[in-house]
Amino acid sequence: MRKFKRIATYTFLSIAALVSIFPFLWMLVSMTNKSVDVTKGRLLPGTHLFENFKVLFESVDMLTALVNSTIIAVITTFLTLLIGSLAGYGFEIYRSPGKDRIFNILLLSMMIPFAAIMIPLYRLFGGISSSMPFLGIDTLAAAILPTIITAFFIFFFRQNTKMFAKDLVEAGRIDGLSELGIFFRIYLPTMKTTYAAAAIIAFMNSWNNYLWPLVVLQSPENQTIPLLISNLGAGYSPDYGVIMAAIVIATLPTAIVFFIMQKHFVEGMMGSVKG
Amino acid sequence: MSKVLKRASLPTASKKSIGRRFKNNYIGWLFILIAAAGISLFYFYPMIRALLLSFQSGMGSNLEYVGLDNYIRLFSDPTFIAALSNTFIYLLVQVPVMIILALFFSVLLNDATLKFKGFFRTAIFLPCVTSLVAYAVIFKYLFGVDGLINQFLLDLSIISEPLNWLSDPVLAKITIIVAITWRWTGYNMIFYLSALQNVDRSMYEAAKIDGASSFQQFFYITVPMLKPIILFTSIISTIGTLQLFDEVMNITNGGPGNATLSISMYIYNLSFEYSPDFGYAATVSYVIVILIVLLSLIQFKVAGDDK
Amino acid sequence: MKYFQYRKTWLLMLTVVTFLVLAACSSDDANSNADGGEEPDKITAWAWDPHFNIAALEIAKEAYSEDINLEIIENAQDDIVQKLNTGLSSGSMKGMPNIVLIEDQRAQSFLQSYPDAFYPIGEYFNTDDFANYKLAPTSLDGKQYGLPFDTGVTGLFFRTDYLQEAGYTMEDLTNITWQEYIEIGKDVKAKTGKDMISLDPNDLGLIRVMIQSAGSWYVEEDGETVNLVDNEPLRKAFENYKAMIEADFVKANSDWSQFIAAFNSGDVATVPSGNWIAPSIEAEESQAGKWAVAPIPRLNMDGAVNASNQGGSSFYVLDIPGKEKAAEFLADTFGSNSDFYQDLVLDVGALGTYSPAADGEAYQAENDYFSGQTVISDFSAWTEEIPSVNYGLHTYAIEDILAAEMQNYLKGKDLDKVLADAQAQAESQLK
Lengths: 275, 307, 431
Known about the structure:
The complex is a heterotrimer of chains A (275), B (307) and C (431).
Chain A: H1 2-30, H2 35-39, H3 49-59, H4 62-93, H5 97-108, H6 114-131, H7 140-148, H8 151-161, H9 167-174, H10 179-190, H11 192-208, H12 211-216, H13 225-232, H14 240-262, H15 269-274
Chain B: H1 2-9, H2 18-53, E1 56-57, E2 64-65, H3 69-75, H4 78-108, H5 117-125, H6 132-142, H7 148-155, H8 169-196, H9 201-209, H10 214-225, H11 227-242, H12 246-252, H13 263-273, H14 278-303
Antiparallel strand pairs in B: 1-2
Helix pairs in contact in B: 2-14, 4-8, 4-11, 6-12, 8-12, 11-14, 13-14
Chain C: H1 7-25, E1 43-47, H2 53-63, E2 70-74, H3 77-90, E3 99-103, H4 104-113, H5 135-138, E4 139-140, E5 143-144, E6 146-148, E7 154-159, H6 160-165, H7 170-173, H8 178-192, E8 197-199, H9 205-213, H10 232-246, E9 250-252, H11 256-264, E10 270-274, H12 278-282, E11 291-295, E12 313-317, H13 323-332, H14 338-348, H15 375-385, H16 395-410, H17 415-429
Parallel strand pairs in C: 1-2, 1-3, 8-9
Antiparallel strand pairs in C: 3-12, 4-5, 6-12, 7-10, 7-11
Helix pairs in contact in C: 2-14, 9-10, 16-17
């Protein structure tokens, strides 16, 4: 019976994994093919890999886009986690009716489609441009700033803090730690898996973010990966082999970040901390 | 475990001076200060501008105040009504399926004795990082008339002739639902996987000693323990579905006719595809806001989280 | 007492908040600095296809008689539409380009939505030198805003081998009606087993090609009045479309890549399309010598011609510092240089609508892929015949309504009712 369950689990997971990675495998195959073969849906690897990469790196500035996307994603991830977890912690640990009300109001900001606030936001940055050009339109800072403070992560950290043993806070106070000290020395290490999950999501959101960077970044030297891929597909006769090569390069960093972070999802890690 | 939580959520100030409580409350405000200021600036300020915009109409920058006209126009706009009902169909079918599937995966993949955990987790997560461009192209291949899905179903004799997945109104909706589920299940799984690490192992051990089956453990320990996270994922999935855009835009472009059009895609069309009417687009956006607020209130109530 | 051990951290947070508030306060002068009179040292241009319009700008930069510091920025067409709309409607011209390429069918909507944003350039070049059908969409209230770039002149690309197998020659396909095309299509399908055409059921591009050949559009001359229910060409186009679907020679596609694959893999016998599809056809080298181009079929009615348009775009200058420089650059190259147009044809295969260029040598060249046909010269001749229509404001909005009604029509709904319903819906939506 136990053995049967094992086999069933593995079979099920294998099928799910196959379905999940099929498009990814197809991309890997396609980047080795000529555009004509890609459009025909060829499923066998070809010999055009080097040619595709050559064309890709000659026709667009992939390197600049990679550097920009990395800068944006790393800074965004770090600040998002810091600000989001501080606030999520604050709302839950220092819970008060006033804060709950503020919290509910902040949640509202998740609910509007971004396209609806994009134009006023652009206007805002247009204004900032004149007094603080380093934060204004067409700077990486402008692409980062509105994305680091989101109700999403405040909500996420607050919900996770609900599962955090709050007597640890009290223990910290008795030990004479300051309130921020408790946050950094007790809460943060205890919630490592929560941070790992948040890091994955924040990195991915930032890496794939399209609409805001699109409107706020103008110069080619500020281009990010999703914008570059959008451009590759824009012509009347797009080269699908080259596009696939670009997409594979674009996908790998997030996949790697995930693979590294998921190792923190280890069963039973919490048990020892809680004692 | 629930005892621990209860104890923790009791007022912690029983033995402390009022001054200390006041100070903690004040420090608590400091914790949320940056977030509150940032969201006010980057979200609420634009949202208020958008609200004002929703009372205006006109092309591009030729806007004038029209009072509630835009809101009245909604009720007689067949495209909007089609988009609204499509979006609700997505919501009702897709969100529950995805949440359950994600929970199921995370429990399976949380097993310490499972081999190749890292691979399976990464594989199931991959869809949400796979570029939309690539996955749209391949989905259209898979669901094409002579695509793999049809061949597979034909081989198994489930269907007798190829189905028009993308040009039949009902099948196209199913395709979109499959696509969203495929893309976002792994994403939701992460939240559960990380939260499962915070569940006390000893509870499962105690349950095993009491002879509880895996199913009982799942329903009596896992689900109640993960409740805050299940609430979180169901709210963000609701928001995600009500703001659904990428899949519709890239796979069916709203068609055939308006059969797969989503509200967000309609907003996009009103703003950029048609002669831009940002006023009416803002009105439609606020309909989404109202719907999400109502649904979230219901979800908070059901989860009993609003004490 | 360590509560304030982290005082510095709190101070930092307060600084951040102050900073945000300051940013907010400084934001309201968004408009005031929109046109600072400073002349920029750099002219920027937005376009979308590196093998086509961007390449054309590069050549223009070389051909320009003066020195210009021109930065050409690549953005996908949909991206340009979003960026322009966001920038122009916010009132802040920061980050906007000097020159931008806009598709003709969208131009009126931009010109009318942002009346002060564009700079009239009619005085910089002679509009009479350009094909007449390009002028209506690129001008507003008698002022010329756009400098016409490429023609979207259509042709009927066909596989000579398939057609021959079915017993048809170039002559049989020249100057035919869509009804005749459908009959040929049935024959080709019966004799060769190949589909005649590949269509995306969500894209009514072919309907637009059909109605423009009869000088009609979704809206009347004024560009605003919805014209569907009493639109005879549209009615005929719908009938043709349905006849094609029912003739069972349509290979459905749902994506650009599948559309290209349909002819690259030899599955369809004809591709009625704008001339810009040629490079995609030529990409399949193994089919060299097997393709030819006939004039596009016409609608079966008086006044319809065997020439139409699909796509095509023009350059616009934004009313920001640098506008004179930008306009002079465009006028000197795209606006008046016949030799430059020969280079355009030779190097990027881009066919403009500048009439004097048609006499040039490059236009007479034979194309080996198309078995020595003088493709450019043919397209150029058809360009002159394209009926001029005012695309107006609502092409894509109406098309979405029509696409939904087309589904109903194909399912058997009465055509009168189909067009009447579409008309009613369009009228209520486009107030």
